[in-house]
Fold this protein.
Amino acid sequence: MKNKRVGFTTSFPVEVLFAAGHTPIDLNNLFVGGNSAAHARNAELKGFPRTVCAWIKGNFDTALHANLDEVVAIVVGDCANSASLSSMLTLEGLPTLPFAYPPQRSRDALDASIRQLEERYEVTRHQTQKTKERLDEIRRKLITLDEWTWKERLVTGAENHLWLVSSSDFNGDPDRFEEELDRFMESAAQRDPLPSGLRCAYLGVPPIHRDLYPRIADLGADVVFNEVQRQFSMPDLLPDIVDQYLAFTYPYSVFERLEDILPQLEKRAVDLVISYTQSFCHLQIDNIILKKKIALPFLTLEGDWPEPLDNRTLLRLESFFEVHG
Ligand code: SF4
């Protein structure tokens, strides 16, 4: 069956799905872009505990309402809760397929994981590679967009976040994505550079609060480095599919993330670091290490429910910028 709608729980080799003629759909983007609080609440009504991350709850209920044929659950290299999320989806009658990033970052093991995916979707490595070449044309444009954020300052941190985070699935339609990107970049090229202000890095999973970037801008700062969103855009452009997903730092340890983060902070002349963590997430432990290893003013923001930022968090942001401005 061609053109299945296939949900997934974090970035993985979508090249295989596009090559097979299917539509991959990043559940996170669908969740946070929709009626996110209702989705998370619905999951709690089905028994998900309060003490489970809202992304997991939201992705669960979003998957059930997205008219999907199946879900690829990234059970190793993403979230400690993904395997249980996958079991809950199976219980609800939605077929799920596991994908694992090998914990040792072994090339052979990752190659085997991608081959299993190719066998499942009946595509050859040659087809996967051809599709990768096509997607890399778009990724090349995203690299320019990213440079326009930190170097030319024609693109805001919020815009950078949205474009890069959406490249996990190219909104399900790479051709349309590219047309919209071209239009955006044509108009951004006509802009005057943004006023210079505090240059922030945003580290960690994308925020559950849709208003975080506008609030940062209201306070006279902007984000010039979106760590994980940039990783989703596969910025290394390595020619081989296995090498590309081996270079993707998010599935591996915090030390691999730091190998990407530290040079980028320097290259982009970042003044301040905002490290986002999600309540009840294991990555909160990695955040302890990030804070120890990064020698810049560092603010940890913890998000929980999909709602606008609360006054306490706004006040913390404001004081952070005041003290370090
Ligand atoms: S924020 Fe953390 S706990 Fe929540 S889905 Fe992502 S990795 Fe899992």
